């Protein structure tokens, strides 16, 4: 938990630097849009980033002000709001990812290479276990199914 807390704090500090000036929800939104490599409906984006529609609207408004995303209406269904990352937004995400990699490299610099390899291997195994837990129904669902 301490490592998770420290990593979160460092990442928040990084995003808050003058060169980035983003919140975590803003970054998550940009990252999702960049990885999607296509325009995205606001409803899909809210689900993917686990934000309420109201919160996401505020996030998108601020990202538009920074010229990192653009918002439009669906051609056939004007009720649907579509969002896409701008080239400037994609570039910013790449810069943040690079800065984060540099932070992590600095944090691991005191470890010998074989220890880093072992750590990465173990973290991959932990990640596999965590992904498995996310994809398994919780115990209450399993108990309810067997009742």
Radius of gyration, Cα only, in angstroms? 19 Å
Give the strand order, joined by hyphens, for the main sheet: 1-3-2
Task: Identify low-pLDDT runs.
Answer: none
- Provide the CATH topology of the largest domain: Arc Repressor Mutant, subunit A
What percent strand?
5-15%
Structural class: mainly alpha
Number of helices: 7
What average pLDDT do the residues reach?
A: 89
Report the top-level CATH class of the largest domain.
Mainly Alpha
CATH superfamily placement of the largest domain:
Winged helix-like DNA-binding domain superfamily/Winged helix DNA-binding domain
Element string (H = helix, E = strand)? HHEHHEEHHH
Main sheet overview: 3 strands, antiparallel
Which outline best applies?
globular
Keywords:
single chain, 147 residues, mainly alpha, Arc Repressor Mutant, subunit A, 3-stranded antiparallel sheet, 3 strands
How are the SSEs placed, and which strands pair?
Elements: H1 2-16, H2 24-36, E1 40-41, H3 42-49, H4 53-65, E2 69-73, E3 81-85, H5 87-108, H6 113-135, H7 139-146
Antiparallel strand pairs: 1-3, 2-3
Helix pairs in contact: 2-4
Task: Write a short abstract of this structure.
This protein is mainly alpha-helical and 147 residues long. The chain contains seven helices and three strands; from the N terminus they run ααβααββααα. A hairpin with a 7-residue loop joins β2 and β3.
């Amino acid at each position: 938990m301490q490592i998770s807390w420290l990593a979160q704090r460092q990442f928040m500090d990084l995003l808050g630097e003058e060169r980035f000036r983003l919140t975590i929800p803003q970054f998550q939104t940009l990252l999702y849009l960049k990885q999607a490599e296509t325009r995205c409906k606001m409803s899909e984006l809210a689900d993917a980033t686990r934000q309420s529609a109201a919160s996401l609207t505020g996030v998108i408004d601020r990202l538009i002000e920074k010229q990192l995303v653009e918002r439009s209406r669906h051609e056939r269904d004007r009720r649907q709001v579509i969002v896409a990352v701008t080239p400037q937004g994609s570039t910013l995400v790449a810069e943040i990812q690079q800065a984060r990699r540099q932070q992590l490299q600095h944090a691991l610099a005191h470890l010998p290479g074989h220890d880093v390899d072992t750590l990465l291997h173990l973290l991959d195994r932990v990640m596999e276990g965590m992904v498995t837990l996310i994809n398994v129904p919780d115990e209450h669902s399993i108990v309810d199914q067997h009742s």
